[in-house]
Design brief:
- The complex is a heterodimer of chains A (569) and B (246).
- In chain A, helix 10 (286-295) packs parallel to helix 12 (340-350).
- Chain A is elongated.
- Chain A is 35% helix and 18% strand.
- By secondary structure, chain A is of the alpha+beta class.
- Chain A has two domains: 77-209, Penicillin-binding protein 2a (Domain 2) (Alpha-Beta Complex), CATH 3.90.1310; 218-255 and 276-517 and 524-564, Beta-lactamase.
- Chain B has 246 residues and is an all-alpha fold.
- Chain B has nine helices and no strands.
- In chain B, helix 6 packs across helix 9 (219-245) and helix 8 (199-210) packs across helix 9 (219-245).
- The longest helix of chain B has 59 residues, at 2-60.
- The termini of chain B are far apart.
- Residues 152-239 of chain B have low confidence and may be disordered.
- Classes of the chains: A alpha+beta (569), B mainly alpha (246).
- At the A-B interface, strand 2, helix 8 and helix 17 of A face helix 1 and helix 2 of B.
């Protein structure tokens, strides 16, 4: 434009340079302006796009964020029929911020002492005048109390809701359910074992379905509690199990535990006798010994004869019987009268190796297989499995297992000889029945039916019979080890059995810890007088619920054993 | 000219209207969505309330509480084995009516009908009615302290029999029997069970001879003829009762 034409004016290099500079400056300015404009346009575009985005897909101002789902803070636990056993509810919590109190503290202390009498007036005043910033006064407060506290109108009082674990059935199945600690994490039982599953947001919406059946559990607990009271026992345990699936339908331990206030309970009550406590369970082991010998081919018939003297001297020890025969006796008679001498001989015949193999097969040498974390360690002869140990283990002494071990063992023996671990989860689509492993042969399992039925019809377990339900089982009275010595007066009695015996479906174990003799038992404290009748009562209550039809005309094949017992006149 | 100058205003108005329209739609959608969320929130709250109430009911009606009531008040116990039924048939047998022996009912013997004697001569008279129509009441012996009354019913019974036997079978009765047949057809089912298989034919032969001679015994009158035996018997029973009372 204003650049001089070279033809008219002589070239002035300095001027030319100036023109070039101006041009360059302008170009830069344009560039910068353009750049700034683009930046602004970009920002505006971003804002506009964001606005459009929000208008199309965004939240609106009135959106509520508090209540979006009905899934509880911690998953429910229900029984096999869907009845809730543990739930999380919103409970009211009363707390106080002492520095924020604006009213008269003495007045407030007076009113609080009336409403919450756990502290007196002076105590409340001391608390209100303390330097603490925040104190919980009451958790899981009753709504009426919350209303009254609210009516005090003191801004220093804090009322809030927080999730709280509630066990609607209180004591029912407390040892199975367990309880939670103050932070809402499982501290025992299934709450502890499935803590992750119950708190995980992905899974807590679905309740945890247990194999427990609430009515069966209630029947078992009630009858056991009655027996515990009647016989002044210090504790009791009971287990009902489906022998084909390994599902535990009821499991209880006494003294009772209320999981709603588990923190305030006696440690004795929190102790799960069914899975954590181990006991020498005595004669209830004898059916295993006979079954082992039969499987090994040592006992070929229920009529096999053993010499049963009044006392048996073996390995420097003397084995005694409560009902000594003093003659030759058959296997059926040994079982009928619960003879230690006879069983010891059968065990010796079987041998330590076979005994260990079978016991391991039934899981008796390992901690019990169950979802719970409260597992007792079994006490066995270990490396010192001598000939004497084989004999004593044969009749249930020198080996301590949990009552659940015993129930699993009976389930194994009578379901056709297949061991399946016990489970507390309902068997269904999500939880299949495990394959299991064979321990006893099918034939042995079948032959044992008549033998155990005989104990109830003719032997020591007569009081366990529930007419029509074909109960079969074995009593067990074991002297308790106190300070390393067997006590003559302190016993653990148990009854382990199966019903209905002609086609076994359920195994049950009832155990009483230190029962005392009463007038009704004529001074006896053996299992036949306390554990057996309890067993019978429970069966007559739960069998109809479990769909077992009573039939007075059905029996297992008693012709296998009846010819081999001699009726004493 | 004016149109051209207003064009821009038109554009502005159009764009504004469109924008406003879009905004209105947007608002509408937002408000609908808010209403929906409100409903959802209320559903969740209702679910929570239901859960709370269920928990409360479950806690108040817990099994331990029911058990306590049962022990203290109801005292219900588990059913015994003999309280179970094999099925609906066994249940029905419990409801079967009890058989109450009726003293007034006619005694029906297995050999109730005695074959009639054929009248050899015309002067022989009508045949003798079969025996065994005495009622249970007449045979009943009532224990009594009074000695003199004891032989009375014993004596009465042969009298009755004698009377029956001696009474000439008047032609009135067979006539009744013939007149009756159509009516008690249904009743016939009852006595039909009692007599032996040969009885109906014989009973049938009776009216055939006395009243309708031309009619041969056929399966049809078997039923009807069996029936008249009953009214006769009943009539007799009544007369006997009357006599016994006298």
């Amino acid at each position: 434009m204003n650049a001089p034409t070279p033809a008219l004016v002589a070239a002035r290099p300095d001027r030319l340079r100036l023109v070039g500079q101006r041009r360059q400056t302008l170009a830069i300015m344009h560039q910068r302006l353009m750049f700034g404009m683009l930046v602004y346009a970009g920002i505006i575009a971003v804002v506009v796009l964001r606005l459009l985005w929000l208008a199309a897909f965004g939240d609106h101002a009135g959106r509520k964020t508090t209540v979006t789902t009905s899934a509880p803070e911690r998953g429910d636990i229900v029984d096999r029929n869907g009845q809730p056993l543990a739930r999380t509810i919103d409970a009211w919590t009363i707390a106080v911020h002492p520095p924020k109190i604006i009213g008269n503290k003495l007045d407030l202390a007076r009113k609080l002492a009336v409403l919450m009498p756990e502290r007196d007036e002076a105590g409340w005043l001391q608390l209100l005048r303390s330097n603490k910033n925040f104190v919980f006064l009451r958790r899981r407060a009753a709504p009426s109390l919350v209303e009254t506290v609210n009516a005090l109108g003191e801004p220093g009082m804090a009322l809030s809701r927080e999730p709280d674990r509630l066990y609607p059935q209180t004591d029912l199945g407390a040892h199975v359910l367990g309880f939670t600690d103050i932070d809402g994490h499982g501290a025992a039982g299934m709450e502890r074992a499935f803590d992750k599953r119950l708190t995980d947001p992905a899974t807590r919406g679905q309740p945890l379905v247990l194999s427990i059946s609430a009515p069966v559990q209630q029947a078992l607990e009630h009858e056991l509690l009655q027996a515990k009271t009647t016989f002044s026992a210090i504790g009791a345990a009971g287990i009902v199990m489906d022998i084909h699936t390994g599902e535990i339908l009821a499991m209880t331990s006494l003294p009772q535990l209320n999981p709603n206030i588990a923190g305030n309970m006696d440690p004795e009550a929190r102790f799960n006798r069914a899975t954590l406590g181990v006991w020498e369970l005595g004669s209830t082991f004898k059916p295993f010994t006979v079954a082992m010998a039969m499987d090994e081919g040592k006992v070929k018939s229920m009529g096999q004869i053993y010499n049963c003297p009044r006392q048996l001297h073996a390995f420097g020890r003397t084995i005694n019987d409560t009902h000594p025969f003093g003659r030759a006796c058959t296997v059926a008679e040994i079982m009928q009268e619960s003879s230690n001498i006879g069983t010891a001989q059968i065990a010796a015949q079987t041998g330590a190796e076979a005994q260990k193999r079978f016991l391991r097969g039934m899981g008796f040498l390992d901690p019990i297989a169950i979802e719970l974390k409260e597992k007792g360690r079994t006490l066995t002869p270990g490396n010192d499995w001598s000939g004497l140990a084989t004999m004593t283990v044969g009749y249930g002494h020198g080996i301590a297992v949990t009552p659940l071990h015993l129930a699993t063992g009976y389930a194994t023996l009578f379901n056709g000889g297949i061991y399946r671990p016990a489970t507390l989860l309902k068997v269904g689509r999500e939880h299949a029945v495990p394959q299991g492993r064979r321990v006893f042969s099918d034939a042995t399992s079948y032959k044992m039916r008549a033998l155990l039925r005989l104990v109830v019809t003719e032997g020591t377990g007569g009081k366990a019979d529930a007419p029509g339900y074909r109960v079969g089982g074995k009593t067990g009275t074991a002297e308790k080890l106190i300070g390393g010595r067997y006590s003559k007066n302190v016993v653990v009695t148990s009854f382990a059995g199966v019903f209905p015996m002609d086609e076994p479906r359920y195994a049950m174990v009832v155990m009483l810890d230190e029962p005392k003799a009463t007038a009704e038992t004529h001074g006896w404290r053996t299992a036949g007088w306390n554990a057996a009748p309890t067993f019978g009562r429970v069966v007559s209550r739960i069998a109809p619920m479990l769909g077992v039809r009573p039939d007075l005309k059905r029996e297992p094949n008693m012709a296998e054993v009846l010819p081999f017992i001699r009726k004493e006149d | 000219m004016s149109a051209r100058s207003f064009r821009s205003v038109g554009w502005v108005a159009g764009v504004a209207a469109t924008a406003l329209g879009c905004y209105m739609v947007n608002l509408k959608v937002a408000s609908e969505r808010a209403a929906l969320e409100d409903v959802e929130t209320r559903i969740v709250l209702a679910e929570r309330d239901i859960r709370l109430l269920q928990t409360e009911i479950g806690t108040r009606g817990r099994l331990a509480q029911l058990e306590k009531w049962n022990v203290k008040v109801l005292a219900l116990s588990a059913p015994a084995a003999n309280q179970f039924m094999d099925g609906s048939f066994q249940l029905a047998t419990l409801m079967a009516p009890q058989k109450v022996p009726d003293p007034a009912a006619p005694v029906v013997l297995a050999s109730a009908a005695v074959p009639e004697r054929q009248p050899v001569l015309a002067s022989d008279g009508p045949s003798v009615a079969p025996q065994g129509t005495a009622t249970a009441a007449s045979l009943l012996h009532t224990a009594s302290l009074k000695r003199e009354t004891v032989p009375a019913p014993v004596a009465a019974a042969p009298q009755l029999v004698a009377k029956k036997a001696g009474k000439p079978r008047s032609s009135v009765q067979p006539e009744k029997a013939v007149a009756a047949p159509a009516k008690p057809v249904k009743v016939a089912a009852k006595p039909a069970i009692k007599p032996a298989s040969d009885l109906p034919t014989k009973a049938g032969s009776k009216p055939a001879k006395t009243a309708v001679k031309a009619k041969p015994p056929s399966p049809k009158p078997v039923k009807t003829a069996a029936a008249p035996a009953k009214p006769v018997a009943k009539a007799k029973a009544k007369t006997q009762e009357a006599q016994a009372k006298q």
